[in-house]
Amino acid sequence: MGNLFCSEYMIHRRFDLKGSWHGRSTDKPEADIDAATTLKDLDLNFFFRLQKAWFQEFCMQVDRDCEFLEQEKIMDYSLLVGLHFRSTSQKNDALFADSCSAPHQSPGGTNQQGTNLDMLGTRLSAVSLDPTRWACIELGTNMPAKAELILRRTNFDSEMMIGEPSGELYDVILFFGIIDILQDYDLTKKIEHAYKSMQHDPTSISAVDPKQYSRRFRDFIFRVFMEDT
């Protein structure tokens, strides 16, 4: 979490997203929620709209990371997302110059996709500063985007889970990466799955096998993040 949010920007809201919903809400009353509170799936009240090139790269990277984690029998990971609302910032808009507003290109003109671990939270912070100390944009770091407020559903629908778009948009700077990547689907997790499945919907709990976890995680993340049209 410290690596992902290592920035000159204040993180106004942070979300830990898994794609499951049993027990996935904060236990704080709304009045006590502040910038340091890590919110969860059922607390999510924004869609995130990315520029086309960034959205395509985001989808490819999430797919690569999830395939890697599934192969390694890893589950229980999260996408940690931090939002900085630009309307509250006194930073100069020149911070986001054209030279830093699209996916980085290699000398040959192709995207520098990196390894399967590019988005994992264990990587070093990707904040890079130019000579004037302006923050450059990389996938998951200092990314200008739009956050669209979600209309909360009065009745819970596990298929949608996150509500409907409201059309109310905010200019934000996004930080995100996959964290908690060391939990394999061991005997303890299998027992947890069996026990909780007797009490709750088996698809709602976090402890599921890596293949199901990866599929559910991607399905959810790709509903939360979308291309800005």
UniProtKB/TrEMBL annotation:
<dbReference type="InterPro" id="IPR023610">
    <property type="entry name" value="PInositol-4/5-P-5/4-kinase"/>
</dbReference>
<dbReference type="InterPro" id="IPR002498">
    <property type="entry name" value="PInositol-4-P-4/5-kinase_core"/>
</dbReference>
<dbReference type="InterPro" id="IPR027483">
    <property type="entry name" value="PInositol-4-P-4/5-kinase_C_sf"/>
</dbReference>
<keyword id="KW-0808">Transferase</keyword>
<dbReference type="Pfam" id="PF01504">
    <property type="entry name" value="PIP5K"/>
</dbReference>
<dbReference type="GO" id="GO:0046854">
    <property type="term" value="P:phosphatidylinositol phosphate biosynthetic process"/>
</dbReference>
<feature type="domain" description="PIPK">
    <location>
        <begin position="1"/>
        <end position="225"/>
    </location>
</feature>
<keyword id="KW-0547">Nucleotide-binding</keyword>
<keyword id="KW-0067">ATP-binding</keyword>
<dbReference type="GO" id="GO:0005886">
    <property type="term" value="C:plasma membrane"/>
</dbReference>
<dbReference type="GO" id="GO:0016308">
    <property type="term" value="F:1-phosphatidylinositol-4-phosphate 5-kinase activity"/>
</dbReference>
<dbReference type="GO" id="GO:0005524">
    <property type="term" value="F:ATP binding"/>
</dbReference>
<protein>
    <recommendedName>
        <fullName>1-phosphatidylinositol-4-phosphate 5-kinase</fullName>
        <ecNumber>2.7.1.68</ecNumber>
    </recommendedName>
</protein>
<keyword id="KW-0418">Kinase</keyword>
